[in-house]
Structure formats: structure tokens, C-alpha cells
Amino acid sequence: MELLKKSIQVSQKKCASQVQITLDDDFNVPDVKPDMIQIIKEQAGIELKDVRALNGKVLVKGALKFRLLYQSDEEEMPVNTIGGELPIEEMFNMDCIGNEDTVQADWRIDDFSAELINSRKLSVRAIVTFHLSSEEKGEMLLPIGISDTGQGDMEQTLSSVELLRTPKEVTSLVLSKKDMLRLKEELRIPGNRPDIQELLFYEAQVHSFESKIQEEKVQLKGDVSVFVLYRGSNEAAPVCYESEFSFHETVDCPGCQEGMPIWVDYQMGNLECQVRPDEDEEERMIVCELPLNLRISCYENQKVDLLTDCYSVASDLVPEKTAQTMERLLMVSQNMVRLSGRITIPEGIPRMTQICRVTGTVRMDEEAVTKNGVHISGILEICILYQSKEKENTLYMAKGVLPFEQELEVDHAPDNMHYQIQACVDTVNGILLDGSEVEIKAVLRLNLITFEPQTMNLITGLKVSPYEKGALENMPSVIGYMVKPGDRLWDIAKRFHTTVEQIQKMNEMETEEAVPGSMLMLVKILPEI
After folding, report:
1. Confidence (pLDDT) at 158
2. Of all helices (H) and strands (E), which one includes residue 282?
3. Residues of the chain with pLDDT under 50
């Protein structure tokens, strides 16, 4: 006598850890660059080269790469740029990690600052949070029946065995993979702009990102806005150029089918831009390459008639149970949050004449599971790059924040719900009201995936033995039983050593519904000893 089992693929989080590190160093201004008067704009990103498990520890190697836009003391070159990197080589403790485990490292720059020590030297400091996690992928065997052959043929299930099956929705992991999408595009400077002499600063933002599952693949599409600041030929003032391109890419996802829930988590790498001549040999083409680090998970929700109990009227059959936990996918949702507000420049800072670039960064402050879903609050950090007529040929930066609060709805959210939020800025725009105030309109995209942990006592084995002589003698052969509230026909049959079918037959019942207060005649079935 053997269990019939259904195999599903699962992924359980083995362990997770969040650690914060501080990076700092001093940098000298190269001899070819003019003196620094003031830092205008900062940009920083993490590039990981190696993440490795080493028996209870995790090695993380890479670098924080930064680029600074600064105001110099030269009239011919009033705006300049300097770049560098802070090396990262850290060993983090994770007791549950073994050499063969795969570790996923996500990062977040909590704070980045660059301060002038003098005109030729600066101090760079960053606070970086790493979220390290390891998942175990494998199979879970769900009991669905009993066979006397061990061949999985349900028709050969023992006729003397009574089975209780309970419908259960379970989630299997169809696919979990990491990939990298390299977005490449050539941008042409418009004819009314000067040729490029030197790229000073550039950055990108992904928005309207969408994923769609199809047979054996997932389609990814979205838009990328690129901002470039460059020094033009025979121009003292820096030239601002902003453009946008769309992408529509396909990633192979073996085993995935249309309609399956999918979660695509992405993190932007460092944008690289290079200048090349156009067909007229003029420096007017910018080649952009933006890597997107992807994590793709595809799921399938299945309904399984789970074997939750069994007994036999012919032998002493005892199911052996083991508590096992698995996660059931509740939902994947996309939420759009619209924000608006005003950013005012403090006194003493040059007034605005023209806005060059507005960017936003989402910072999550608090998250909590509620009866309606997940309640979050945070801020949108706004940076405004602008020009001022108070001093020509240079740029200035104004900063501010817009707070937000949102309830991400989940129907019948359980208290122990697990979730993941992907927060990004979809669009952000600024309208200059006067020299000291800007009206901001932004749209945040908050993607949410939620799971309910389910702990089930799964039947993992069967203990079968003949009834001992006299084991059932103390149980009456015939009894009248009054149904109590909460009674199931199955429980009554098991308790009094009969079958549901026999009870229905003896009491002329058309259904298995046990009506509280009704009287049932029960006849004990004796095994052949």
C-alpha cells in the first residue's frame, strides 16, 4: 500500500539578511580639470561583479560608480564633470548559507554625498543597504490517494480504504531565472543644436515598464528617457538635450504559458554614452547602452484534491503526517499613484530662469499589512536642474520632497501575508511658476506581489497492520448517534468504524450533509481476522 503523490515545483526562501555599509574616500581633481567651486549634481550607482556563498558567509565584490557635475572657476569652462568609483569588497555573515547556495544581492543607495575639501580635492561618502537572500528550489510531494500497486493507478486503490480529500489551491513555481537586457539606442542631436565637443553628464529613467507572458517567453516593453548635458563646439554654456526611445524585447521562459502569473523585477545598471560622428562626419550621434538586470518568476495556481485523512475497516491504517509550509500566490497588481505639489527655492539661492531637468527618487519609509492590503508611506525626492540669469553659462540644483501615502488593496489579506513591492517613478514633470517656485506633477508605479504562507500537515507515509484480536470488541455493533454541530459524516464514520456509504445507505441519505440534531443509525463493520 503506497501513497499516490503529485509533484509540484516550489521555491522557499532559505534565509535573508539586510546589511548596511558605509563607503567613503577622498578624490583629487585631475590636472586636466579646472578648480571646483561648487558641486551642482551628483549621480551614483552600484555595479556588482561577484556575489558568492562561502559556508556561512557571503562575499560581495563590486564598486560604487559616481559622476559629479560641478561649477569651475573658468569662464570658458564654467561647468565640468568628474567621475570615480569606490571599491566594494565585503564579507557578510549568513549562517544558513552553504558553498553551493546561490545568493541574490539587491542594493539601495540610502545616501550619497560629495563635499569639497578644497578646490582640488573632495570627499565622497555613501551609505548602501544590501538585501541578501537565498532560495531553495525543489519539489513538494502532495498526497492525492492510495494505491496497492505503487504504480500510481487510481483504479487499483484498495476498496477497503476510506479516503478524505480536501480541495486545495496550491502555487507551483514554473520558472525562476536571472537575465540581463541590454538596451541600445542611437540618438541624433537636432540640427538647431551645436556639435558635441564633450559629454559632461548623462542619466536615464525607465518608465511605462510592462511585462506580458506568452508561450515559452515573456515580452518586455517600456520607454527610456535620456538626458544629456554636453559642451558644444564654440559654446561656453552647457547644452541640454533630452530624448526618449521605446523598447520591445523578448526573453525566453521555458515552461511558461499565457495566462500564468508573472513577476518581473528589474534594476537599472549604469548608463553608458559615447559620441560618434554622423554621416557628415560631425559629432552629433550619441550611442546609449543601458543594462537592465532582470529577475523573472512565473507561477501556476493549481487546484488539487489533497488527501488529508484515511482509515481502513479491514486493517489498522494510520497516516503519518509532517508539517510542511508552502506559499500560495494571492495576487500580482499594478498601482498608479499621482502626486502633485510645489517646490520652493530657499532664499539666497539664484532664481530660476529655465528648467533643464526634473528627476524623482522614491524612498519608502513605512510598510504594514492591514486588513485591506498593504499600507505604505514615503517620499518622492525631487531634484531640479536649472539655469539662472543671475549668472550665465552655469547650472544650479534645487531639491525638495513630496510625501505620499497609499493603501495597496488585497482582498481578504491574511495577517501573515508575505509581499514584495517594486516602486519606481513613471513620470515626473516641473512647471516653472516664477523664479522661486516649481509645480511638480508625478506618477509613481507601485507593483505588488503577495503570498499567503500555508502550513499543512501532509500525509507522508502509511503505517498498516492487522487489527489485534479484540481491538474492536468494546465498540457497540449498532448505535444510535445524534449529530452535533460541526460533525461531518466522515468523522462519524471513522469514529464508529463504518463508512460514509454505509451510513448513507442505512439512513436513506441522499447527500453527505450531517444535519445537527438528527439521529443516525450506525452499524460497525468488522474486519476479517
Report:
1. 66
2. none
3. 150-157
Report pLDDT for 467.
Answer: 80
DSSP E strands in 345-436: the ranges are 354-370, 373-387, 396-409, 418-434
CB within 8 Å of 440: residues ≥ 6 apart: 339, 340, 341, 342, 343, 358, 382, 400, 402, 428, 429, 430
User: Cα–Cα distance between 502 and 217 in angstroms, integer?
Assistant: 52
Q: What per-residue confidence (pLDDT) applies to 503?
A: 94
Is there a contact between 217 and 263 (Cβ–Cβ < 8 Å)?
A: no
Residue 186: the pLDDT is: 95
Identity of the amino acid at 460: T
Using DSSP, state whether 492 is helix, strand or coil.
helix
List the Cα angle 364/368/373 in 5-degree steps: 110
- The whole-model pTM stands at 0.85
Nearest to 298 by CA among 420, 174, 418, 419: 174
Strand partners, 478: 523
Buried b (16+ CB within 10 A) or exposed e, 18-36: eeeeebeeebebeeebbeb
- Contact in structure between 142 and 170 (CB atoms under 8 Å): yes
432, 433, 436, 438: CA torsion to nearest 10: -50
Asked if residue 345 lies in contact with residue 414, where contact means CB atoms within 8 angstroms, the answer is: no
Q: What span, in angstroms and rounded, lies between the C-alpha atoms of 516 and 12? A: 42
Contact 278, 147 (CB under 8 A): no
- Which helix H or strand E contains 502, and what residues bound it? helix 500-506
Cα torsion 427, 431, 435, 437: sign: negative
Per-residue cell: 130: 544590501
Beta-carbon contacts of 302 under 8 Å, excluding residues fewer than 6 positions away, are 8, 169, 170, 171, 172
Closest CA to 316 of 58, 527, 485: 527
Phi, psi dihedrals of residue 356, rounded to the nearest 5°:
-95, -40
User: In whole angstroms, what separates CA 73 from the centre of its chain?
Assistant: 46
Residues with Cβ within 8 Å of 43's Cβ and at least 6 positions away in sequence, in order, are 66, 67, 68, 201, 203
Do 108 and 128 form a contact (C-beta atoms < 8 A)?
Answer: yes
| Residue bearing cell 555595479 | 47
Report the relative pairing of strands 262-268 and 478-482 from DSSP bridges. unpaired
pLDDT at 149: 60
Cell output for 271: 548608463
SS3 392: coil
Q: Which cell numbers in the block locate residue 240?
A: 541640454
Helix, strand, or coil (residue 218): strand
CA quadruple 46, 50, 51, 56: dihedral positive or negative?
A: negative
Contact yes or no for 495/485 (Cβ under 8 A):
no
